[in-house]
Amino acid sequence: MKVVKFGGSSVASATQLQQVTSILEGDADRKIVVVSAPGKRGSDDEKVTDLLIKIGESFEVGKKDEKAYEQVIDRFREIVEELGLPEETLATIQGRIDEGIAMIERGASNGMDALKACGEDGTALMLSAYLQNRDHKASYVHPQEAGILLKDEPGGALVLEESFDKLYELRQKEGILVIPGFFGYTKEGKLITFSRGGSDITGSIVAAGVQADLYENFTDVDSVYCVNPAIVDNPKEMKYLTYREMRELSYAGFSVFHDEALIPAFKKRIPVCIKNTNNPEAPGTMIVADREDTDGDVVGIASDDGFITIYVSKYLMNREIGFGRRLLQILEDEGVSFEHAPSGIDDMSVILRETALPKEKEEIVIRRIKEELEVDMVEVERDMAMIMIVGEGMNQRVGVASKATQAFKNANVNLEMINQGSSEVSMMFGIHAEGIERAVRELYNVYFT
Amino acid sequence: MKVVKFGGSSVASATQLQQVTSILEGDADRKIVVVSAPGKRGSDDEKVTDLLIKIGESFEVGKKDEKAYEQVIDRFREIVEELGLPEETLATIQGRIDEGIAMIERGASNGMDALKACGEDGTALMLSAYLQNRDHKASYVHPQEAGILLKDEPGGALVLEESFDKLYELRQKEGILVIPGFFGYTKEGKLITFSRGGSDITGSIVAAGVQADLYENFTDVDSVYCVNPAIVDNPKEMKYLTYREMRELSYAGFSVFHDEALIPAFKKRIPVCIKNTNNPEAPGTMIVADREDTDGDVVGIASDDGFITIYVSKYLMNREIGFGRRLLQILEDEGVSFEHAPSGIDDMSVILRETALPKEKEEIVIRRIKEELEVDMVEVERDMAMIMIVGEGMNQRVGVASKATQAFKNANVNLEMINQGSSEVSMMFGIHAEGIERAVRELYNVYFT
């Protein structure tokens, strides 16, 4: 049994949903389908989820965005009509959108989540109806009915362990099951969403729950590339990747697969295949527990900007037991999550995402560091970027760091930070964001050409 | 006015004390002298401080080490006689040693400190008497009278700010003042010692207090070398170093100058000169606030072994706000100080000195990490070494890391950790201790030959 997930561009139009159907018809093992909300049909199109957020946010300024509302309904109507689906399919979708809006109007804490979830929900309703029209045994399965139980956490919802047993029961159901991605329910029955792009997570949870033989993740590229194709032309395709390699790459800027989506598949050892909806014959990229030839070669280069460094120095810091802990405590008190915290003898840096430290929090954090830790200096540096090179076995191979640092030198990019040794499969470099493209190109040159 | 400090080998015998006297006589600015305890006269000799510790520890097993006691008294007697000093000098020294022993016997909490301090105290008594014999106006100044006020801290005594004003009054005294190094007093009048080698700290505190023009630190080498001469033959001498460079080098294995001794001089901007007692004409190494040509060149390579790594991994660690803080809290609770704590996405390492984590604490710490943080894995790796390359401006120079990593590759040494970015003047590398000499030699080659 395979669990198949289709991303936003793969379900953006009636034509794309027909292509999805043909992929499902091409392999009888493709029993469970998880779908995203309709994405962009072209570069100047709007994603349905963005439109739903626009509607939700319009209530903050007190006035419903009627234009966005019409756009969403029109998107669904167009697909419903082109696929020749019954009118009630559209009515159901519109009813759920209206219910989401009503929840926002009456101030429900999860109103926005309910409204945002309507994109994926609508796709699932349409696809299951279309499959039935084509005489398949197919059914829409609501995430609550499927058993996707979540816990609400500051960084986004996390799946509860008990979901997996409940999901296993889906194996008993006949026909093709279509499940909307991106959301689930708390134990108290409250709808909550994952972080953006969370349909990948739903797919992974379902694949883990039903113990699928394979989790196929259909997107709009033939495979995962070893580097961002927007920076390097025609980069090498990756045939095999380990879970750990993919997770590190996703974290540091690889947008092809959601950062956290691998975890459930990883834990139950379900292989994942990234494939192209519009070229399903291409082999794609397999993500597995172990691959051959893990001899320390670099397999991928990820890069991401939008980081901040807080640099703190104080004489005799290394004599103060608890200094590092107290610094991190201040961040925790203020709800600020950090990425790395390298320390020297009399200094310590904290690296975090810009989104984690809005201006008003920055002021509080910096003041508390000055006053409570009595530091000699605290400085904030913005516009930092992180570049990560990834490969199993890398930490055991002499000379990997040497190649990397040579590449930065070739690119004339100064290394503000090197973090190596905490992870066994990656090495991370901090630079000023302006150098990111030069550095990535040189790294590609030294490792792949 | 210059403050001059003489180390253990410089005061090991009557001959050496005569050499010290001639150095003092050679420059009328050398007004204040800080001395260590008599050190080794040859490679199979014992240091007086080691003998005093032996005596102190013998009481733990209930029996005074009479042999060590005789050895100490004989050492002092020999010097007193050779210098032709009055018998009462030896009687005073012996009286203070006996008082230290008596304090240990009656269970005084600082008995061991009082006994250990007798080495430096004896040298100061002898040197001041000898200077008087040679018709100099000279006096012994007790650290309590001088105003060296300390605070007792777990890692060793720290000087109190008010010491500096009191020490400034020494400028009013006439003649040469001889102060024993290594110890001071709490506000309550309790004698306490610095960590081992702490006479350097006394000298630095005194130099800062009297606002000396120069703090001359006499030892047994012509200058500070850019690398450990036990690893590289005839290494380059350093003419100028900044305080920050010296502090980082001292921390990571440069034993020529005590790790913390620079701080007081640094804070008051007193230049420090490291010189050779037995070749006082050599210019030595100047340690200053700023040096010319701080263009990012590496000026020194330090190395030290005896480190441990604790490696911890847990899925979704980066989603747990407070994980790093809670890990450090466990170490703090158990009184374990750490050196570095680099973190990845789902993993974190803590690097500490072996001395900071005795076996019985290791078990508690590992158990608490497993139970309280519910980690997936925790591993302890021993026999690690740290190598540090140091140079002002290094963090602004493209290509420094590239040269260093090339050297490790040449040496066929795998880099277990790179910590760059927390300090502005250094870069630190973690390796397995077996590769330390190969790596240091190659680093010397790439930076200095």
Can you walk me through this structure?
Two copies of one chain form a homodimer. Chain A is built from 15 helices and 19 strands. The two termini of chain A are 39 Å apart. Chain A has two domains: 2-221 and 256-260, Carbamate kinase; 300-448, VC0802-like (2-Layer Sandwich), CATH 3.30.2130. In chain A, helix 2 (48-58) runs antiparallel to helix 3 (66-82), helix 4 packs antiparallel against helix 6 and helix 14 packs across helix 15 (436-448). Chain A has 449 residues and is an alpha/beta fold. The first copy, chain A, has helices at 14-25, 48-58, 66-82, 87-105, 111-116, 118-133, 143-146, 163-168, 199-209, 243-251, 262-267, 323-333, 359-373, 400-410, 436-448, and strands at residues 2-6, 30-35, 138-140, 150-151, 158-159, 176-180, 183-185, 191-193, 214-219, 224-225, 237-238, 240-242, 272-276, 285-288, 300-313, 347-353, 377-390, 417-420, 426-432. Helices cover 37% and strands 22% of the residues of chain A. In chain A, the strands form five sheets. Chain A has an eight-stranded mixed beta sheet with strand order 3-6-2-1-9-13-14-12, with helices on both faces. In chain A, strands 16-15-17-19-18 form a five-stranded antiparallel beta sheet. Chain A is globular, with a radius of gyration of 24 Å. Chains A and B meet through helix 10, helix 11, helix 12, strand 16 and helix 14 of A and helix 10, helix 11, helix 12, strand 16 and helix 14 of B.
